[in-house]
TrEMBL record:
UniProt domain Pyrimidine nucleoside phosphorylase C-terminal: residue ranges: 345-418
Function field: Catalyzes phosphorolysis of the pyrimidine nucleosides uridine, thymidine and 2'-deoxyuridine with the formation of the corresponding pyrimidine base and ribose-1-phosphate.
Highest classification ranks of the organism: Bacteria, Bacillati, Bacillota, Bacilli, Bacillales
Source organism of the structure: Litchfieldia luteola
PROSITE patterns: THYMID_PHOSPHORYLASE
Subunit-level organization: Homodimer.
Protein name: Pyrimidine-nucleoside phosphorylase
Top-level taxon: Bacteria
Family: Belongs to the thymidine/pyrimidine-nucleoside phosphorylase family.
């Protein structure tokens, strides 16, 4: 096989065979296909798309480009959840202990990543002593015992995707539905998920700014999952404003604790119950989402969800007493209110630029080498649709430096106030089941 022929075939709109796709992925991973040919290929895919069969074949080829995680020693159906980006998305921190509390095994492999705030591991490290440097055996033992554990990314998972994603980033080919869908799904499958719940975000803070695109991406991922034998469904949820109130590592841990106690922001709680009930059904712990939802609500009201969080934290060295006393989490030195300059109704809270403001405080990582300040971040005091008086706080800024003028300017530019009443955007737009 010659790469040039395969580029031409895709350029002219034909579907590639499984063998042809495997050849491209294997040879590219090994370094036998140069970046310039792969760039031409991804651009051809960008314009010509891929059939459902090609997408499944591409995903599996990427899964098999490296190690895969074997979770077969964990009892039960392992359901993973993936959210496509978003700002201040605390759902993983809530969902892991919440679904574990009703018996769904959560074997989470997580990274640090770049972004407005840290990844799940960074957030959890706000709890003193908590660590993810455990070996595979210990990981499996903990999931079987407590139903939840988190391990740091190890091994050589989907090297083809790593290489390809970096190439797409600099060749204007990230934004292709078959390439995004296969990239995300290959990582979930390599990490050992039997079933997958996807939370595809749409709106100003998301990758897919409009609903139709989000729906198309969701459908593409659900098809891939189901075509390769992993039951998959997707929820399309709103990211026109940040989810919940907290954006920042310690602040999000506290928000997750509040939510598991039943005192969290209503949008965060609702999305967690929605995603969680689908996870419970896919894990076959309930026969309907209604039944699953009442099991999850019961885990919250009985305290079982909080107890599961404590078990999970202490099993990995964490100080579980933060759950009853969140003031033990890292605290910022300066607390500054962002006062509304006019009265009215909040009409916009542009999620990605709020995220940038959190970055300015040091809550996230701009490069792999940056360090994160776990204490800092933002707490929204108002959400879209809320009425606000002049001088009332819109946001509480938690900072470790005194002069936060630049952060304030960014926040004022991200929050719009209208003199007319504003409708609250829906939280869940759609569900894609098959
Ligand atoms: N996230 C991924 O992991 N891959 C993509 O291609 C896009 C977003
Ligand atoms: Ca949040």
């Amino acid at each position: 096989m010659r790469m040039v022929d395969l580029i031409e075939k895709k350029r002219d709109g034909h579907a590639l065979t499984k063998e042809e796709i495997s050849f491209i992925i294997n040879e590219y991973t090994k370094g036998n296909i140069p970046d310039y040919q792969m760039s031409a290929f991804t651009m051809a895919v960008y314009f010509q798309g891929m059939t459902e069969q090609e997408r499944a074949d591409l995903t599996l080829a990427m899964v098999h480009s490296g190690d895969t995680i074997d979770l077969s020693k964990i009892e039960g159906i392992k359901v993973d959840k993936h959210s496509t980006g978003g700002v201040g998305d605390t759902t993983t921190l809530v969902l892991a202990p919440l679904v574990a509390a009703v018996g769904v095994p959560v074997a989470k492999m997580s990274g640090r990543g770049l972004g407005h705030t840290g990844g799940t591991i960074d957030k959890l490290e706000a709890v003193a002593g908590f660590h993810v440097e455990i070996d595979n055996e210990e990981f499996i033992r903990l999931v079987n015992k407590n139903k939840v554990a988190v391990i740091g990314q190890s091994g050589n998972l989907t090297p083809a995707d790593k290489k390809l994603y970096a190439l797409r980033d600099v060749t204007a080919t990230v934004n292709s539905i078959p390439l995004i869908a296969s990239s995300i799904m290959s990582k979930k499958i390599a990490a050992g998920a039997d079933a997958i719940v996807l939370d595809v975000k749409t709106g100003a803070g998301a990758f897919m700014k409009d609903l139709e695109e989000a729906r198309e991406l969701a459908k593409a991922m659900v098809d891939i999952g189901n075509n390769v034998g992993r039951q998959t469904m997707a929820v399309i949820s709103d990211m026109s404003q940040p989810l919940g109130f907290a954006i920042g590592n310690s602040l999000e841990v506290k928000e997750a604790i509040d939510t598991l106690r039943g005192n969290g922001p209503s949008d965060l709680e609702e999305l967690c119950l929605t995603l969680g009930s689908h996870m419970v059904v896919l894990a076959k712990k309930a026969t309907s989402t209604e039944e699953a939802r009442s099991m999850l609500k019961e885990a919250i009201s009985s305290g079982k969800a909080l107890d599961t969080l404590k078990l999970f934290l202490s099993a990995q060295g964490g100080d579980a007493s933060v759950v009853d006393d969140p003031s033990k989490l890292p605290q910022a030195k300066y607390i500054v209110e962002l006062e509304a300059q006019e009265a009215g109704y909040v009409s916009e809270i542009i999620a990605d630029s709020i995220g940038t403001a959190a970055m300015l405080l040091g809550a996230g990582r701009a490069t792999k080498e940056s360090t994160i300040d776990l204490a800092v971040g933002l707490e929204l005091r108002k959400k879209i649709g809320d009425e606000v008086a002049q001088g009332e706080s819109l946001v509480t800024i938690h900072s470790n430096f005194e002069n936060v003028q630049e952060v304030k300017d960014k926040l004022y530019a991200s929050i719009k106030i209208s003199s007319n009443k504003v409708e609250v955007p829906p939280l869940v737009y759609d569900r894609i089941l098959e």
